[in-house]
Amino acid sequence: MNVPSPKKDLMIVNMGPQHPSMHGVLRLIVTLDGEDVIDCEPILGYLHRGMEKIGENRTIIQYLPYVTRWDYLATMFTEAITVNGPEQLGNIQVPKRASYIRVILLELSRIASHLLWLGPFMADIGAQTPFFYIFRERELVYDLFEAATGMRMMHNFFRIGGVAADLPHGWIDKCLDFCDYFLTRVTEYQKLITRNPIFLERVEGVGIVGAEEAINWGLSGPMLRASGVQWDLRKVDHYESYDEFDWEVPWQKEGDSLARYLVRIGEMTESIKIIQQALERIPGGPYENLETRHFDRERDPEWDDFEYRFISKKTSPTFELPKQELYVRVEAPKGELGIFLIGDQSSFPWRWKIRPPGFINLQILPQLIKRMKLADIMTILGSIDIIMGEVDR
Amino acid sequence: STAVILYVYGYNYLRSQCAYDVAPGGLLASVYHLTRIEYGIDQPEEVCIKVFAPRKKPRIPSVFWVWKSADFQERESYDMLGISYDKHPRLKRILMPESWIGWPLRKDYIAPNFYEIQDAH
C-alpha cells in the first residue's frame, strides 16, 4: 500500500491559439515529460471561414477576392489556381504575354512568401534581426505589386483568360532593378544566417523526414524536396510557360529543418533567375483572352417579365462552368495547392474543394515532434511553413 | 482492399481526398486522387477514385493505414459531410468546433441563426 510506484507525471501544456510569432491561430496541446515532448495534438479550426461552402454560391469573378485570403502571403498562387481551373475546364487559351506576366507575378509572390517565412522562422529560433530585413525587401515587392495590380497584398488581378490589366510603363525596368538588388540581399542572408554556428546547432538534425515517409504522408513543396524527392510541379506538369525558362529545382537530401531552409533560399534565387529571363523575353500582345467575355447563350426571356421584378437579382451573363470535374494544381511556395472543381452547367460550381498545402503538411507535426525538446517545437513548426488562412480556410 | 492493390501498383502519393454530395438527397461520394511519385517523371499518371456511400449511414473504410496523408483530410470529410471512416485513429471534428451539430457541406444543410436580408416585397 505504501510502496511508491515510480510513475511519471506527464505535464500537458497548451500552446494556445495566439502565438507571438506569425504562424496564425494554431492550438497545440503538448504532452511533456520534463522537457522532452511525448505527444502533441494540433487543434485547428480557429480561422475556418467556410470558403468551400461560400464558393458554391459565387461565380468565379465574385470569388476571386475570397481566394487571396487563403494564403495571404503568396496571394498570386491562390488567384492563379482559381482562374486556371475554369480555364482548363473550358479549354481557354491564355495569350503569351498574359502567361509571362502571370509567371513574373507568381515568382515575385513566391519570393515574398519565402521572405515572410524566413522572418518568423528566425524569430522563433531567437534571431530578431532578419525579421526586419525581410520586411524591407517585402516592401519593395509590395510596391511592385501595387504599381501593377493596384493593391499591395490582396490583388484581384487574375481573370479567366489572362490578367486584368497590362503592366504599367516602366514596371519592367523597376522589376529588373529589384532583381539585381535582391541578389545582393540573398548573399547577405547567406552570410548572416547559413554559416552561423548558433543557427546550425538549433536547426541541424531537427525534424527529419525520410523520403518514403514524406511521400506517404502526402507532403509537398519544399518539405518534399528537402527529403530527397525531386518533385516540383512546375517541371512535372508543364504549366504556364515555365518550360521556356532555364532554371533548376533546388533540393536536398537530409530532410531536416536545415535542408528545408536551404531549399527555400535556393528557390528564391531560382525565382530571381526566372523573373529576369521572363522580363527580358516578354512578348507583346494582348493580356487577356477576351473571348471569355463573349457569351452567346440566350437569356431566358421569361425571367425578364414584369411580374418577376422583385424576386431576386438576376446574374449577368458570366462564364459558365461545364459539367465536368477537374483537379488543378499549382506549385505554391508552401506546397501543392490544388482545387478539385466540379462544375455544374451554371455559373456556380457544384463543389469547390481546396487542397491546402499547409493542412496536409501539418499532419506530420505530431510525428516529427516526438522525442524532441520543447524548444524544437517552434523550429519544426516554423520549418513546415504553415499559414492558418489556408489550413483552416 | 482496393487501396492496397493500388498501392502495390506504385501509386504512392495520395494527393487529395475530398468528399462531396452527388445530388441533394442522393449519395455522398468520397474522392481520392492518387499519383505516382518517381524520379524524373514527366506528366505523371493519376488516378481518381470515387467511393459512393448512402446518405443515411455513410461509412467508408479509412485508407489512413495505406497512405498516411489521409489523416486530416478524412477528418475534414467527416466534419464537413458526415462520412465516418472506419478504423481511423482519431476521427474527430477538425475545422468546426467539437460540439457542432450538423454537416456543413451537405447541400441540405441549414446554417443555424443565419438570416439573409431579402428583397422586401
UniProtKB/TrEMBL annotation, chain A:
Matching Gene3D superfamilies, A to Z?
Answer: Cytochrome-c3 Hydrogenase, chain B
Q: Which NCBIfam families match?
A: NuoD (TIGR01962), PRK06075.1 (NF004739), PRK07415.1 (NF005649)
Q: Which keywords are on file for this protein?
A: Chloroplast, Membrane, NAD, NADP, Plastid, Plastoquinone, Quinone, Thylakoid, Translocase, Transport
Q: Which residues form the NADH-quinone oxidoreductase subunit D domain?
A: 124-393
The taxonomy runs: Eukaryota, Viridiplantae, Streptophyta, Embryophyta, Tracheophyta
Cellular component, GO, one term: chloroplast thylakoid membrane
Family per record: Belongs to the complex I 49 kDa subunit family.
What is the name of this protein? NAD(P)H dehydrogenase subunit H
Note the InterPro entries from the entry: NADH_Q_OxRdtase_suD, NADH_UbQ_OxRdtase_49kDa_CS, NDH1_su_D/H, NiFe-Hase_large
Enumerate the GO terms in the molecular function aspect: NAD binding; oxidoreductase activity, acting on NAD(P)H; quinone binding
What organism does the record attribute this protein to?
Linum tenue
Automatic annotation (TrEMBL), chain B:
Give start and end of each NADH:ubiquinone oxidoreductase 30kDa subunit domain: 9-111
| Membrane-spanning intervals of the chain | none
Going by the entry's taxonomy, the superkingdom of the source organism is recorded as Eukaryota
User: What species does this protein belong to?
Assistant: Linum tenue
Which protein are we looking at? NADH:ubiquinone oxidoreductase 30kDa subunit domain-containing protein
| Molecular-function GO terms, alphabetical | NADH dehydrogenase (ubiquinone) activity; oxidoreductase activity, acting on NAD(P)H
**Protein family (similarity comment):** Belongs to the complex I 30 kDa subunit family.
Keyword field contains NAD: yes
